[in-house]
Amino acid sequence: MTNFQVLHDFLNGSSNVRILILDNNNIQFCCQYEEYFPVDEIYQKYDLILIPGWVHAEVSHSETRLFYLARLPKPLINLLEEEDYLPLVAFEDERLMEVFKGASSAYPKSQKFFKQLKEKINRNGEIPDGWISDYYENGFDIRENGVGVELRKNAGEVSILSLAFLLVHKYSSKISQITISSSDKGSWDIKHKILDYIGSRQVLRIPTPPVPITFKSADVLIAEAIKAKTIGFDDITQLRPNPRTCIFVQNLSDGTSENYQCVIDTPAFIEMLKDIDKIHLLF
User: Angle formed by the axes of helices 24-32 and 218-228, to 10°?
Assistant: First the structure.
């Protein structure tokens, strides 16, 4: 049985499913600070946890992270881009190409790949069987991690957000929300690039109103823990040593609100959380 079939059977037998899709950076954060974010607590709001194949490949470089995944208290399905994504669009290769193209529209190497792929299809009159594997192998810049392992930059984030919209397209009647567990700002940007791209080209069927796709970054986890009083303000310096981009809504006294997206250092972040009832952190 394919992993897609496991997913299909789960969703078909359920309703109002709350899905969490994992990114490697948040897995690392939660592993490192599990004393502050117990595994049984931070996943209790979800019914199903998903991890794309290229994210799992990054996780697999650490036995600690693999052990963490093995202890998740909810069902976990690893969906492989090469095998499990096409069934989400009824095996329509062109449609999946458009989703990937929209998700990676900010990356020149990915756009070059799709340009060359289109030229090849026009010449030969057929779609190459291994185009998805070829895309992940050759459509992303390569970087090395600290132990010399080659990683495809942004491949995990593209997989995560592509998966989220494919799920909304196929199973919107079964899903109540999708949350992205990632602290990579690129994930936020990709969400809006896909929305613009598929909306203008009608690539996917997205219901109105759409299924919410939200983010649980490390900063959101910290803000939730402060609100629940499971950590104190003195803990934040250890949990958040460096400035990060925050995206939040500030509620004003007259009932209006303002959206902000800015880099905030840790002392300013702590001060912001001291007045937490006036803000809603989105990322």
Answer: 40
Q: Note whether 183 and 23 are within 8 A (CB).
A: yes
The DSSP bridge partners found for residue 177 are 18
Of residues 267, 261, 236, the one with CA closest to residue 248: 261
Sheet of strand 48-52, all strands in order from the earlier edge strand to the far edge: 76-79, 48-52, 17-22, 175-181, 213-215
Query: What residues contact residue 32 under an 8 Å CB cut-off, 6+ apart?
Result: none
> Band of the pLDDT at 148, cuts 50, 70, 90?
low
- What would the DSSP string read from start to end of 201-238? HT-S---SSPPPEEE--HHHHHHHHHHHTSS-HHHHHH
Which pLDDT tens digit goes with each residue over 206-227? 887 889 999 999 999 999 999 9
Which residues pair with residue 257 across a beta bridge? 251
β 150-152/142-144 pair status: antiparallel
Report the alpha-carbon distance of residue 186 to residue 103 in Å, rounded.
10
Residue with tokens 């969703």: 11
Q: Are the C-beta atoms of 250 and 278 separated by less than 8 Å? A: yes
CB-based contacts of 244: which residues, under 8 Å, 6+ apart? 183, 218, 219, 263, 264, 269
First-to-final CA distance of the chain: 36
Give which of 239, 276, 248 is closest to 35, Cα–Cα: 239
Q: Where are the domains of the chain?
A: 3-216
Q: What is the pLDDT of residues 154-203, one digit of tens each?
A: 899 999 999 999 999 999 999 999 999 999 999 999 999 988 887 778 78
d(CA 247, CA 117): 36
